[in-house]
Amino acid sequence: MLKTEERSDKELAIAYINGELQCFETLLNRHKERVYNYIQSLVKDKYLAEDIFQDTFVKVIATLKRGSYNDEGKFIQWVLRIAHNLAIDHFRKSGRMPMVKSDGEYDVFSVLNSSEVSIEESLIRNQIHKDIRALMKLLPAEQRRVLILRHYGDLSFKEIAQVTGVSINTALGRMRYALINMRRMAEEKSLILQM
Fold it and tell me: Is residue 39 a part of any domain in this protein?
């Protein structure tokens, strides 16, 4: 029988699920530095990184105990995805940094260029775009096509009607239903599609 340290991630995860608790410690020791460094690179804050790191492994343990983990030989990628999603969730919940005003009317942060996008905003925006693309794939083909032509092709509804061979009212209706369906699916999946 292999020593615990010699087992693959998959073997360790399965062994942990089956009651060999020390196997999780081996997994943690094997990947903790990489996971922590990844989180730190996202959030740029030591204490926040430590909190998200702990939350990541709490979620990993809970998922393993529930038997919901589906190993495809990619344990570390799965853990990093959990960490990434937790960082995104943190940024979404905390919102933007509040403005700090000095005693006078002078705004302390007025010297900063407001058009600069922070790492947090960039991460949130990327996640929102990813979520929207995933929802679009679930739409009926006619609705998806109108949505793509309107938002990505920047076509007018008249142009969309001509391209798709339908009336303007039909194009407008498909767009309306696409948006309604996407809102409904986002609510069902608890997705936040705004900054």
Answer: yes
